[in-house]
Amino acid sequence: MSRPLRADAQRNRAQVLQVAARTFAEEGLSVPVHEIARRAGVGTGTVSRHFPTKESLFAAVLLDRMEQLVRTAGELADDGEPGEAFFAFFALMVEEGSANKGIVDALAGAGFDFQAVADDDSHDVMGAWEKLLRCAQDAGAVRADADISDVKALLTGCLDRERQAPDPDARARMLAIVGEGLRT
Amino acid sequence: MSRPLRADAQRNRAQVLQVAARTFAEEGLSVPVHEIARRAGVGTGTVSRHFPTKESLFAAVLLDRMEQLVRTAGELADDGEPGEAFFAFFALMVEEGSANKGIVDALAGAGFDFQAVADDDSHDVMGAWEKLLRCAQDAGAVRADADISDVKALLTGCLDRERQAPDPDARARMLAIVGEGLRT
DNA sequence: GAATATACGGGACGGCCGTCCCGGTTGTCC
DNA sequence: GGACAACCGGGACGGCCGTCCCGTATATTC
């Protein structure tokens, strides 16, 4: 282990992370790193010291969000009916994607290895999600042959619909369609 | 109008188009134009003279394929039950996407304006597809509130599933799920 | 408050890629 | 078969972007 970061370095790191989170969410992964540095009011060197590559910066941002989502998934799994929990989390992910272009890009596989980030030991989103699915299937609420990749693909579809034309009606309709398809 | 192309120019154009079609289908839109020129055995200048931009090259490739797909859609619409025709065409598109990474990229909106190309007057894929949808809805085979954007999004989802791990079982499952969701 | 390590800024670098241009070549037409 | 226009090849150019480096500034420690 190394000694703790200097105070200003900590501030800068946090600042970069926050700006990056907002920027990636609003504009997707195509934003240049220079731009994030500029908006954070630091030099590009500062960014690249804390996060050697763009991918590592995005991974750090994503991991933050992931933690919350996994926690939510856990809570949903704990209380209430398994089927409801599964579909509620699915809807939550759609909402998240709608507000977070970065996640959509990652899910769409636009250059980043989402799988690798999602599979990180301490932030096992896919695992948590899969558990929700399995519970719902055991409870007979979701067709037994569906796997987590199917679910992820359906999520991608819902997010694509959002991207074409964000519209509350359309979102509800897509959730209904997917729901009908997935239920036993 | 200009005079007809010189014989060698026609040959080169056709050659580039053919190589581009195969290459885009196999590797997606990220292939450099230089690489297509190299494989076609021509200089980059030759490519860029016939197709001023990469987008125009891809559009030309896509339009070829589109024509066939639209024709197929028309045939499906003409004979047989409307619901069957709609779902058959959907399955056909999934198959097409599975064999054609370029189309997947275009559908996923990876930098190219698929809509613009698809809406070309003489190759109105979306229109043809929408007609299939409307017929199926009129016949009561597909839920009435779904629109063509929903269908396109669901297709994107199916194609995403293919990309994660191509698998005949998974494809059939996805089609079943989407079918269940879309039927009345 | 001085000494030292640590971090900052932002310019430089290199790779990638699409586009353009020019000297040479090859069809075409009389 | 000769002259001219059309076309070819591929190198040059410019923009973009991620990464690295170094002279400078600042926090930390004693």
UniProtKB/TrEMBL annotation, chains A, B:
SUPFAM superfamilies: Homeodomain-like, Tetracyclin repressor-like, C-terminal domain. Residues 10-69 form the HTH tetR-type domain. This is TetR/AcrR family transcriptional regulator. Keywords: DNA-binding, Transcription, Transcription regulation. The keyword Transcription regulation applies. InterPro entries: Homeodomain-like_sf, HTH-type_TetR-like_transc_reg, HTH_TetR, Tet_transcr_reg_TetR-rel_C_sf, TetR_SbtR-like_C. Residues 32-51 bind DNA. The lineage of its organism: Bacteria, Bacillati, Actinomycetota, Actinomycetes, Streptosporangiales.
